[in-house]
UniProtKB/TrEMBL annotation:
Signal peptide start and end residues: 1-21
Species: Armadillidium nasatum
Membrane topology, as annotated: Single-pass type I membrane protein
Residue ranges of every copy of the EGF-like domain listed in the record: 86-101
GO cellular component, one term: extracellular region
Main location: membrane
The protein's name: EGF-containing fibulin-like extracellular matrix protein 2
Gene Ontology BP annotations: endocytosis
Localization of this protein: Membrane; Secreted
Key words, A-Z: Disulfide bond, EGF-like domain, Endocytosis, Glycoprotein, Membrane, Receptor, Repeat, Secreted, Signal, Transmembrane, Transmembrane helix
Length: 121
């Protein structure tokens, strides 16, 4: 069979993907720590209230220390996981939804004797 060549004809079909894969539906491992937002290309992660995106890994959320950033309490603030708690120093109680403090007793009499100022509560 001299002179006969066996040849191949290849037709390539290039498929262009027109629909996005929803990475947010991936169950294991979870794509985002809290909320996954599907986008036309890719995804983004969002965190629940009281949390923020971890600067080292945008898929993870970390607790926000509201006591350092917002100063939400009039006296004492304790950061908790995803929130905070306000409290008051001795002699005061929380007021107006727990963010402010007011004295729990009132002085009835303030008197002065020369250079000394005293109170009677």
């Amino acid at each position: 069979m001299a002179g006969n060549h066996v040849g191949f004809l290849v037709n390539c079909l290039i498929l262009i993907r027109t629909s996005d894969v929803n990475e947010c539906l991936q169950s294991q491992p979870r794509v985002c720590d809290h909320k996954c937002i599907d986008k036309p290309i890719g995804y983004s992660c969002e965190c629940n209230k009281g949390f923020e995106i971890n600067p080292n890994d945008s898929r993870l959320c970390q607790d926000v220390n509201e006591c350092e950033k917002e100063f939400p309490c009039s006296q004492l603030c304790t950061n908790t996981h995803g929130a905070y708690k306000c409290s008051c120093v001795d002699g005061y109680v929380t007021h107006d939804g727990g963010h402010t403090c007011k004295a729990n007793s009132f002085c009835l009499l303030i008197y002065s004797s020369g250079s000394h100022l005293s109170r009677m509560c």
